[in-house]
Amino acid sequence: MKQIKFFLVTMMLTLSAVVMAQKTTVSGVLMDKTLNEGEPFATVRVFKAGKSDKPIAMFITDENGHFQQEVKGKGKFDIVFSSVGKEELRQSIELGKETPLDLGTIFMKENETMLKGVEIVAQKPLVKMEVDKMSYNVAEDEDSKSNTVLDMLRKVPMVTVDGQDNITVNGSSSFKVYVDGMPNAMLSSNPSMVFKSMPATAVKSIEVITNPGAKYDAEGAAGVLNIVLNKQSAQASESMNGYNGTIRLGAGNKQMGASVFMSGQQGKLSYSANVFTSYNKPGNTTTEMEQIQANGTSQTMTSDNDVKTPFTMGSLTLGYQLDSMSVINATASINSMNMKSTGTALTTMSGAALGNTFSYGSTTDMKNSRTSFSGSLDYQRFFNADHTKSLSLTYQLDYSPASTKITNNFTTTSTVIDLTNRYSDNQDKTTSHIFQLDYTMPLAKGQTLNLGGKFQLHDATSDSKYYLKGVYDQNSSSEYEYKNSILAGYGEYVGNFGKFGMKAGLRYEYTWQDVEYHLGNGQDFSTSYGSLVPTASMQYTISQGSNLGLTYNMRISRPGISYLNPYVDKTNPIALSYGNPDLDVEKAHNVSLVYNAFTSKLMVNLNLHHNFVDNAISQYSFYDTDNLLNTTYGNVVKSHQTGLSGYVSYLLTKDTRLFFNGGLNYTDLRSTALDQKNNGWTANVMAGVQQTLPWNLKLSAFAITSTKSYTLQGYTGGFNLLTASVSKSLLKDKLNLSINGLVGLNKGGNLNIETSSRGKDFISNTCIKVPIYSVTFNISYTFGNSKMSQKQRANRVQDDFIEQQSQGEMLNSIGSNI
């Protein structure tokens, strides 16, 4: 009998041990219900049902709110989620019945009850870092209520905005810009103008994708800058029948504007709309230039230029969930810009064949109008309950006409140079059709294969009419059609193995380019070529809040219309400008080592990178036998750049946040063809503070500095800026009032930007004085009946074509080349 009892007890203990040893993988994603964003580093505890004294398991979510953990036991348990500033959430689960156990998406609410005498200090992450991309959470930044998108870009890691609003990514101006994953013709031609006019309240986040991977187009040496707008989604995890909106007005000495944003959802239908308009008047810019030639000829030029730019943009997004396994999205946007520029100049020349000193005055009037339309239709179908296997089909249409009219009049005549009054009328038009297919399938646990193809058709026309003394000059005019077609296919493998993750892919693109001249200086030509583009990245998770990554990618830059067009621009009487139809595609290789770390107070990102190009396209200048300065392009440069960029955000107290965003780069440029070389160090820093003052006033103040940057034939000087804003929220944060200021640190609040260029037979120095000081008042009001704005899947189209510069823009920029 004792033996039987002993046997039964042993069996029960063994069975109990087996039950307790049984493991179930529990996974899911924890979301902030108000922002519909992942809740990072929240604590997850598992208790036996009805007990809360000692958890049997405890772990935390990752930076995106995801969690996956093996838990021992079988039967009913309670799982508890807790995070700073959120209400504790408890759910009942049953282990051992379903393996693995996917809890899906879980939403946490804000905790509106504050405990007296308890001060909680923690920060919501403004930056989410991954090995191949970085996302800046604009909506979470207090400054977004009063700033423009261009202002916010100054704070984004690896992005620099100089004193003339030129944007670079990792020190390079060769990058692609998207809105919600779609290209935009207006952004491709003038991103700084659009971002200067766009209120930050319209934007959810800014993504800097430095290693885009095989799914993305190969164009853009520095990667992709993706602007994610606020919007609703047909794929919402919860049914949210309601709407949200924001109205914003702003006025200042440099700019005034207004915007309206609205998004909502009604059952399976979601919608969002953005409309904003602005009027920019930067002020009078002065340019002083001195140039000395090897033959003894010298010239000086002083010019004043005044620019006014009205701008309007509108976009509409619709989404409809057909059923639980499929969704369809449609987007449409239209942009319109009309820039007017008036300028006067005085030029003095002397020496060599000119004899005595000779001077002449001139006036230049330019009108540039550009309108673009972009629309897309996107269908996605899932094939399993986990939504890990899917097929997407996308069509996109882009249409972008532009007009540039320039009048040049001179105050005198000359027998030495041609000072005939002239007028040019340039009409450009680009139409693009894009078809794309993407297929995603899981291979095994933590492993995914992505396959896809894309076909793009681009048709661009340019009609440049040239007039002398009001009479049409056919010999100097040009009319041509430029067709650019690209067929692409890719394959990409993604694998996650515990603390180690990797992604590797190949993309092949074949390009056909055809140029047909109907009129002007040029011959019809066609070219075609293939590009095999590899990408790879590896990531190692050091701890829950830190990781280390290594990436490599190759990117290309195709020469645009104006780079290829041999049409000779004679707008300037002492200079010629033309393209080079023999240009080859530029290939850039990028290697980077990335370190990310995040705690409740401190966020750090370090990026050590190296970029090299053996056939870089460069603009260069030289004098011909007629003593005219010729400016053209060629694959004439070998470029190497090594740099370290860093971003630090530190929550000193609950009312004080410190920022640092900067980089240090060494550039080496060499050209055997031109027998020239140049190298040097470039540094840029943005440092500042966000401070909560009495009466809950929000203060932001930043100092921005940059040293000179180098080109093959010289350098462009640096700049120093101060920017600050003070804001106040009222009516339970629905009403926001703010005042923003920006000032340069040169005399009069200006920026003095010096540029130097040295060729074999000339030296040129230029100083541009930009009146950058500005003060702007903003008021915004938020309305609606729904607190949650859902995410929408990013459209999968990425346009592979960059129209780098229109003929009209070349005519406008000739003054900077002398």
Tell me what portion of residues adopts beta-strand conformation: over 45%
Mean pLDDT metric = 81
Using the alpha-carbon principal axes, give the shape: globular
Round the Cα radius of gyration to an integer and report it.
Answer: 30 Å
Poorly predicted segments: 13-20, 114-123, 234-239, 787-818
Q: What is the distance, rounded to the nearest whole angstrom, between the alpha carbons of the first and last residues? A: 108 Å
Task: State the secondary-structure class.
Answer: mainly beta
Total helical elements:
6
Largest sheet: 22 strands, antiparallel, barrel
User: What's the total number of strands?
Assistant: 44
3D architecture notes:
There is one protein chain. With 818 residues, the chain is mainly beta. 6% of the residues lie in helices and 62% in strands. The chain is built from six helices and 44 strands. The strands form five sheets. It has a 22-stranded antiparallel beta barrel. Strands 9-10-15-16-13-14 form a six-stranded mixed beta sheet. Strands 1, 2, 5 and 8 form a four-stranded mixed beta sheet that branches. A hairpin with a 3-residue loop joins β32 and β33. Mean pLDDT is 81; it is low at 13-20, 114-123, 234-239 and 787-818.
